[in-house]
Amino acid sequence: MKPGTAGRNCSRGLRSMALLQIHEPGETPAPHEGDRNLAVGIDLGTTNSVVAVSTDGKPKVLRDEEGEALVPSVVAYAPDGSPVVGGLAKRLIAMKPDSVVSSIKRLMGRGIEDVKQVAGQLPFDVEPAFDAGGMVRIRVAGRTLTPVEISSHILTALKKRAEETLDRGVTRAVITVPAYFDDAARTATKDAARLAGLEVLRLVNEPTAAALAYGLDKQAEGVYAVYDLGGGTFDISVLRLEKGVFQVLATGGDAALGGDDFDHAIAEHFLRDWDGAALGSGHVKQAVAAARQVKEALSTDLEGTWGFQMGDVKKAYHIDRATFEGLIESLVRRTLDICQSVMEDADVGPKDIQGVVLVGGSTRVPLVRRSIGKIFECEPLADIDPDEVVAVGAALQAEALTVGSNTLLLDVTPLSLGIETMGGLTEKIIPRNTPIPVAKAQEFTTYQDGQSAMAVHVVQGEREMVTQNRSLARFTLRGIPPMTAGAARIRVSYAVDADGLLTVSAREETTGTEQSIEVKPSYGLSEEEMSTMLYDSMKHAKDDMTARLLAEARVEAGRLANAVRAALAVDGDLIDDGERKDIDGLLDALDKAVAGEDRDAISASADALEEGTRAFAEKRMDRGIRAALRGADVNSLERAARTGD
Amino acid sequence: MDHASAKTEGRIGKDASIRPCWSCHGPLGAADALCPSCHAVQPLGQADHYERLGLARGFGVELKVLEAAYFKAQRSLHPDRFATKTSKEKALSQQQATSLNDAYETLKDPLKRAVYLAGLSGINVLKEGCNALTDPVILMEAMEMREALAEAETPDDVIVITKRAHDEIGDCEAELATAFENRDMDAVGTLITRLKYLRKLADETRYRRAELQSGS
Fold first, then answer.
1. Of A158, A117, A108, which is closest to residue A135 (Cα–Cα)?
2. Under an 8 A CB cutoff, do A632 and B15 touch?
3. How does DSSP assign A21-34, residue by residue?
4. How far off is chain A from B190, nearest CA to CA, in Å?
5. Which DSSP helix (H) or strand (E) runs through A223?
6. How far away is chain B from the Cα of A108, in angstroms, using its nearest Cα?
7. What is the DSSP letter of A575?
8. Are A184 and A105 contacting, i.e. CB atoms less than 8 angstroms apart?
9. ipTM over 0.85
10. pLDDT higher than threshold 60 for residue A34
11. What is the value of pTM for the model shown?
């Protein structure tokens, strides 16, 4: 047996082989690995995105030359397809609406059916030919793109801003997502990061990140609510903060409700007097852009007049705050109902809540603030800029994950996870608000003699009927050994990791047949699609892959060297000076290899160290067993041996 | 009964078994989540929820004590502590953190705790047939409260029923504690059944109230 080698097998092995064949002959990949201890925090927002970094517990939002932290999440495409991200792209909306995409986050992990439901409201030109399932495609500047690619262009711009500001390579990030994002949207976010050449250390829920920023800054303790009304999503989380532990008690929200909807409500007010048939998606985009100005102005002013021109026709609109609030009142009401229900899930009342942290630009709207104050019976907290607080929290968590920290984030599943049973009903397997990571297993049996396959449909949501919930994945278990009905026992396991992502595995228990399940994500991208996109954005991906493999070899070597040094510190007396000298020599050799750039040399030195410490390891086990024997009851040991434990 | 005897043997084996750490190959006990020499995270050993959190087995679990033990364990085992480690360490920490969450969720909730503890004593209260309301007194109580809920016309009517359900839940939990203390497993089974329907009823009152509120 050669212990330790298995751990070095890289799970990305197959894909990296394919990628490594791609680079041009004669070209040496120059790894720009970046600092292993550096990771940035990214708030990838519907309307704006922010990147921040934290060093020595001091978070810093990265700004442009003008001191602006917000990067509008808007991408314009030049005729050659090259993307322009941010303020410049935003200014192009009015001039070239067909070449500009905004609010793409609303389509992450969504199918064409989802989009049709809100089609009139969204300024997207959806690719109608793509109706074979999977994630929606949109048309922009004569091209067809997925939301994942467009998001990756935003992430690339944020990565570039961080690299220029910090003057270092940036390859790792903590990215925030709405707590209420489902599995498909989370996966899409991770895929977008991969395309942008960023390793995601963790997906953190936006309200949790805000609580982290707020709690660490203000030394807050007790129960807090975080009300996060972003451009396209609404989240409400109730957390308990205690001695560095941030424990989410309950979370809820609406993944399709945000400040954008305020804009649309105002835009509809504008468009009511125009001939609907003459309106194109460009006109709608212009109306929405004007509506946003109205919202922002009426958040401080009491009234105003706005001119709105389409073609040759020009009209003026006078809007006061009461009219504005009338237009958005039912939307705000929806957020309050969700707040009420989440407080009940958390088993707390308004009196238990110490404060409400405001997140998202839309919380600047006076009606929103007044309503929050009323329902939680306290004055909302906005000490940290609501537009920046999430990125600050993400940066703090990025530092905690790389450098280490005493704080602990304990998050939950936002939506119940279930499967389809007879009659189209949903059977819940993991209820909402369960702490993650979590795993549950379920046993199924066959209902026909000789049945050899079984279809499983995994859904997310709270409703009784499967069709009212969100389809996550469908898969078929094959190769069930022929048995009489009800004899087979198939155990299906569902695991949700700390990023909130689901994996499914299954085995037939009576024969022990392990089934590898190919889960076809209902609204995701397949591995092939991802590979093609990675190929298309290959220039840096090739370098990244080489760098990543080298980095993994270094991490593994570091793990081994630490283990051997710890063992020497505890049991060094078991070996003589000669043996000690040999091991020290092997450790030195490994250190030297790790300092170099040759992955094979690192692996060879690690193997040599494993080999050279085997005799020492055996002596340590002998000592441990002797110590245990002295302490243990001999009878119980014999019994243990008989039961094979 | 098969289940129970397997558990007992597992415990005896565990006390004395020493296994090698996968990382430094030194000796460690079956219940060690972290290697005492090199601090590498280990695969799940055999331990029940109480052992995993270092708590005494019993129905009486103080929330403060449980939470302190859970937070302490998660501080060293949560995947956030292993974000830059090898993929093997990431996977192992996910397993450890998952079982800690399972232990915490089970022991925090009196109903889940009672079912679990009864299971450790060899009684499977989840088995078919054990959930029927056979006690006529309990059956009457259930029917009466359900009727009251169906007849409730205002949210305030429902709040009265919710309060009654919560009071009964409190009583039921206290009786469960006594039954476990006296090792009266028949009573434990009956009380678990009663607690289940009371909890279900309390949930239903919440939906009914929401319904009446949105309707008004």
1. A108
2. yes
3. TTSPTTPPP-----
4. 25
5. strand A222-229
6. 25
7. S
8. no
9. no
10. no
11. 0.81
